[in-house]
Structure formats: structure tokens, C-alpha cells
Amino acid sequence: MISAGCSCLLLRVATRCVVMLHIATQCYRFRHAFAHSDCHSSAIHGSCSYKLLHVALALTKAGRCMPVIVVANPKGGAGKSTATLVIAQTLAQLGASVTILDADPNRPIVEWRGGSSELSLDVIGDVTESSIIRVIREHRANRQFVFVDLEGTASRLVSRAITQADLVLIPLQASGVDARQASRAVALIHEEEEALNGRVIPFRVLLTRTSPIIATRIEKEIVAALKGAGLPLMRTRLNERQAYKAVFVRRLAMHELDPVQVNGLPEALTNAQQLADELVDILTVSSPDAEVTG
Ligand SMILES: Nc1ncnc2c1ncn2[C@@H]1O[C@H](COP(=O)(O)OP(=O)(O)OP(=O)(O)O)[C@@H](O)[C@H]1O
Ligand SMILES: [Mg+2]
Description:
- The protein has 294 residues and is an alpha/beta fold.
- It is built from ten helices and seven strands.
- Helix 8 (217-228) links the parallel strand 6 (203-210) and strand 7 (238-239).
- The longest helix is centred in the first third of the chain and has 32 residues, at 4-35.
- Magnesium ion is lined by residues 80-81, 104, 108, 149.
């Protein structure tokens, strides 16, 4: 007969085996994906690929599912859909499996998917306040990243999506009006934290449509105000770039755009890479400090 101590040891060994199997599967999935990615030659792609592998390992070890990134700001036109598609495209182009749930009533990303882009990136459009939680859970079980692009208003659908987030990204244009709206987005997150009995929902403010050349005075003031209020900011901004508009107009991925027709395409790709890189950093367990504490 097996003693209690012995069966406990067997259970621990079995658990360890399951965890190792999980890690091995994740490693295989990522290595397989990157082996078939045609873009891991440059240093920046290499570092991001490494981090993607790292995030998979860290989350698997911690027994967590793959990350859900919810992009929210009740202010319309803050850059939610643009930031979602740009970051998701970048991760997909690196070989990660990515799903976007398009909960924007105008369905801009569903429309993008209807174009001729060959990028492997799943887009789901039919999400409602009744189905959002179930759909997020279904996709996070099978995909390496799930993004949720939300409507520019506060609604029950928005609140429900926020409850499922590993990270809420709050895109914000560097204008006074938009900055005041950011606090509404943060308040929404805190309300959901209360509803979840204090589970912390990490978030970052992402400045969008910033000048790639020089930070304007209003931008500097807004950054100072956000830091003063203790709001964590992404170090990387999403600059104002023609390429980020062109992906929607041409319904292509950034790397499929014609650099002759789209000004500043290499710079836009680099900016998107840096943003994806920082996001992956944040999603790893040992998340680096946001700019607010830097
Ligand atoms: N980084 C950027 N560079 C250039 N144009 C941008 C950038 N970010 C957003 N835009 C433009 O700003 C407008 C609003 O952006 P977007 O649709 O992404 O905002 P949104 O927050 O999703 O809006 P809504 O609340 O209506 O869903 C669009 O015309 C988009 O092309
Ligand atoms: Mg939108």
C-alpha cells in the first residue's frame, strides 16, 4: 500500500511533469512560429522574439493563461483601434498567434480583415455584452495574445471586458481635453477592481499621435500632469504616422504597404516594434517600472 507521504510525492512529481509539458509545448509553439517567421533577422525583431518566448514561459510557469490586452478609453477618437491593430499586427508578424476582438461599433478592424492582407491575424466582430467574457476566455485558451478594441464610451460591455484584462491600454492624444478623459478610463478600471474584490488590473496610458520629431509643450505638460497623478505611462509613444492610417485605408499589414507610397514607413515599423517590445516586457511577470516611477 502506498503511504500518504509517498502519494504526496508522486502527486508533486506528476504536477511538475504537467508544468514541464506545458512549458515545452509553449516553447515548441513559439520556436515553430519564429522558424516560419521571415522577420527575425534584425536586432529589434530578435529581441522582441526572445521576449515573446520569455512571456510564454513566464506565464506558463505562473500557471496563467495567455494575456488579454484590453484597449479602452471612453473618449472617442483617442486612437484605440489604431493602437490595437498596429501592435497586434506587429506581434502577428513576429509569428505570435493573435486574435483581435473588435467591439468598436464601427468595426474598423473587421473591415480591415476583409481586405487582401495575408497576415495571419484573427479578427472576431460579433461580440456583445452578453458574449464578451465567454469569447475572451475561449480565445485566450488557444491564442498567444488576445486584444480587445473597445467602443469610445463607458458601457457594460466595456466594464466586462476590463474584468478580463491582464493589461488595459489607455490610448490618449496629447491634448487637454483627452487628458481629462483619461481619468474616466482609470476610474472605470478601479470600479471593476472593486467589483473583483480588489484584484489589481494593471494599466498603462499610451500617448498617441505624438510628433516623432519633438515633444510639444502641451505634450510635456500632459506627461507631467499624468506623472503627478501617479498614472503609469508607456515609455514608447505611438507617433503620428501616415502608415498607421494607410493600413486601414489599404486594408493591408504595415509590412505589406508600399514604402514609395507611404512616407516614413520604416520609422513607423520601428515605432510599432518598440511599442510591442515594451508591451511584452510589461506582460512578463517581472514587469519593469512604468515611466511614472522612472
Ligand atoms: N498614431 C496615429 N497616426 C496617425 N493617425 C492616427 C494615429 N492614431 C489615430 N489616428 C487617426 O485618428 C483617428 C481616430 O483614431 P481611432 O479610430 O484609432 O480612434 P478610436 O479611439 O478607436 O476611436 P473610436 O472611439 O471612435 O472607436 C483616425 O482617423 C486614425 O486614423
Ligand atoms: Mg475605435
